[in-house]
Design brief:
heterodimer; A: mainly beta; Ubiquitin-like (UB roll); 1 helix; B: alpha/beta; FAD/NAD(P)-binding domain; five-stranded parallel beta sheet
Chain lengths: 103, 475
């Protein structure tokens, strides 16, 4: 798998895996979901509701909602504002997606 | 403990400087910030897990930020600092609401400083919604704070020094930059930087960035613009062209570049939602990014007791933000009786004179790089303008053709600005679209009204009102 990480000038923490649409992807402690996905060359985080067009990380600071995904069952979660955690499950979001309420 | 006398929203350079000055004078101060660590975008700190080994790639901002954050640290006991606290508006007079750790909170205020920052200007052009089109600021966050390259083959398109900074950081990280397009005249601002570098060290950095880019052999194309991003599922190609003085493309110069990433940096738009929500009067100033609050020399807005500092009150950079923050903090301390007028004037003086110096430079820079008309004419009828509701330029023109000439009416008719970003990504462009379609000066077109919540928050948190809402008395 490709790795777009820059390894100079910083040391990363613990490596672990997250699951993206059923595929295991490596992430490091302190990384956002967006960074882990970009590092693996995964760019599409959702498809839009009407035109079903692909979207991905755009503003990178949590304002544009371009990078929303279903993260651990919660749709409309911003990949750029969510820290990756071991065992996290990500799904490419389709439209606004149904909200599964977990009790 | 009683309610704080002052609440500051935003812990970037402006907010921190304001909180520090206020606390220094004895004002009880609470600062709220949506991020896990203080510093804002520019002085943001690495997440836990990263260990910084060599800060050189962070440039001079890193050292400046360290000084300010250390100063903030020495006042930690006196300043109530709330991190991960997302302020989403106000439902009652002089009470702010925020979301923190899954719960809603209310915080009453006497004095308020909004230091809400700015974001990259959204520029609609064909293909701008494709994965692989990022803002320059977004790319910078990835490269600087997450140490990930945004792509393999990167094109920068924009104006002013920010994209040069980011391009350098990409190159330093081993990334490949295909080209950098500057819509304006680089020579003009090079001359300007040279003129100022004698008395202001700040932008000699700018020259270094240009040197770095030249050394790497990256073409720096002046008077060029991005016209279109093409690709099936992500960016595969960029169409670029040379532009005239008004940034309108010279058709015969159109050409394609094979790239997988396009970073867009056409300046910043101030985040004014909260200030508009509390009723501050705004004016339209394209040089400073669009709508900005009207302020007096103390940084107080038209709403008594509500102050605005930093890029959120007019994009002018981190130094101006700090000076403005300090001036606001001192002014508030004086108005609350913690400082005499003489003492306040004495404390303000160095910041006022520094600000004057840097303002002159910024003003000159702004005049060179404010967006020219061509930037607002890149979209075609089938280009998405409102990303959330998937409305095209054609949809908006259609509504205007039926008689809509006002942004709030346009919103009600088309749902423009009603999606998750709440108009942040479309409204600055729609302002200019309406201006063109109706031949009205952009400054005369009223901006989107603000309604709480100004940010996307979980409905269960809102639905729990008022039971779960706590008034933060006695914190």
């Amino acid at each position: 798998m490709e790795d777009m990480r820059i390894w100079k000038d910083v040391e990363r923490g613990q490596a672990f895996e997250i699951e993206v649409d059923g595929v295991q992807v490596v992430a490091y402690e302190g990384e956002t979901v967006a960074a882990a996905l970009m590092a693996a060359g995964i760019r599409t985080t959702n498809r839009t509701a009407k035109r079903e067009e692909p979207r991905g990380v755009c503003c990178g600071i949590g304002l544009c909602y371009g990078c929303t995904m279903v993260i651990d069952g919660v749709p409309n979660t911003r990949a750029c504002q969510t820290l990756a955690r071991p065992g996290m499950r990500l799904e490419t979001q389709k439209g606004l997606q149904r909200w599964e309420v977990a009790e | 403990m009683k309610d704080p006398e002052l609440i500051v929203i935003g812990a970037g350079p402006g907010g921190i400087a304001a909180a520090v000055e206020a606390a220094k004078a004895g004002v009880t101060t609470t600062i709220l910030d949506e991020n896990p660590k203080p510093g804002g975008r520019i002085y943001g700190q690495f997440s836990d897990g990263f260990k910084l080994v060599n800060p050189k790639f962070l440039g001079p901002d890193y050292e400046k930020g360290k000084v300010l954050l250390a100063e903030f640290d020495t006042f930690r006991e006196k300043i109530d600092y709330l991190q991960d606290a997302l302020v989403f508006g106000t439902f009652e007079n002089r009470i702010m609401t925020f979301h923190q750790a899954g719960k809603g909170h209310r915080i009453p205020f006497n004095k308020l400083i909004a230091a809400t920052g700015a974001y990259d200007r959204p520029v609609p052009f064909p293909g701008w919604t494709l994965p692989g089109v990022l803002t320059a600021g977004g790319a910078q966050t990835l490269v600087k704070m997450q140490r990930v390259l945004p792509g393999k083959n990167i094109l920068f398109a924009g104006t002013g020094p920010l994209q040069l900074v980011v391009a350098n950081q990409v190159l330093d990280g081993g990334g490949k930059v295909e080209a950098i397009l500057e819509a304006g005249e680089i020579n003009n601002w090079l001359k300007l930087l040279k003129g100022f570098s004698r008395n202001w060290g700040l932008l000699t950095d700018g020259l270094q960035y240009i040197r770095g880019i030249r050394k790497a052999g990256v073409p720096l194309l002046r008077r060029h613009i991005i016209l279109e991003a093409r690709g099936d599922r992500q960016v595969e190609e960029a169409i670029i062209a040379e532009v005239d003085q008004d940034w309108r493309a010279i058709e015969k110069t159109r050409r394609a570049l094979k790239v997988d990433t396009i970073c867009i940096g056409y300046g910043l738009v101030p985040s004014v939602e909260l200030k508009r929500l509390v009723g501050c009067k705004h004016r339209y100033d394209p040089d400073l990014g669009g709508w900005i609050p009207v302020r007096n020399e103390d940084m107080e807005t038209s709403v008594p007791g509500v102050f605005a500092v930093g890029d959120g009150a007019g994009a002018a950079g981190s130094s101006v933000a700090m000076f403005e923050g300090r001036i606001a903090g001192i002014s508030i301390a004086r108005s609350l009786g913690h400082l005499s007028s003489e003492e306040a004037a004495k404390r303000k003086k160095p910041y006022l004179s520094d600000m004057k110096k840097i303002r002159r430079l910024r003003d000159a820079l702004d005049r060179i790089s404010y967006p020219r008309p061509g930037l607002f004419e890149l979209a075609h009828d089938d280009t998405i303008i409102c990303r959330c509701e998937e409305l095209t330029l054609g949809d908006i023109k259609n509504a205007i053709g039926k008689g809509t000439i006002e942004m709030n009416e346009l919103k009600r008719i088309t749902r423009m600005g009603m999606g998750r970003c709440q108009g942040r990504m479309c409204a600055p462009a729609v302002q200019e679209i309406i201006a063109r379609q109706t031949q009205t000066p952009a400054a005369e077109i009223e901006y989107l009204n603000q309604r709480p919540p100004t940010r996307l928050v979980p409905i269960n948190m809102l639905a729990s009102l008022p039971g779960e809402f706590e008034i933060r008395h006695g914190w």
